[in-house]
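Lab manual, section 2.4: Encoding a predicted structure.

Procedure: take the sequence of the chain (101 residues), apply the prediction step described in section 2.3, and record the output as structure tokens. A sample record is shown.
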Amino acid sequence: MITPVEARSGKAPPNEEAVRREVEVALNIILGEDFTKVADWKQWWTAYKGDLQGMVLRTYWIKKTLQRVQLKPGERVPPDSVLVWSRLPPGKQNIRRNKSK
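Recorded output:
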């Protein structure tokens, strides 16, 4: 699931397996999918990227009032605000499975 960023020296870093396991567990929990190959993940991401991005909740910090506001997809960004974080809503996502092309 992790593609190498730097040229490999032929020897895996000591924590690579632990990191790889954590990434796979996180993806399985978040997506409800169990990918064993990067190609499978890329194919799934290509098919469902739009659906996931359409569910993202964004939180902005308004400089004038010093308050945080959470926006749903399609809502206007408040003036004079800074994006604090983006996340999917809590719980399992209802992503269309076996999407036809």
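Check your result against the sample. The mean pLDDT is 79.
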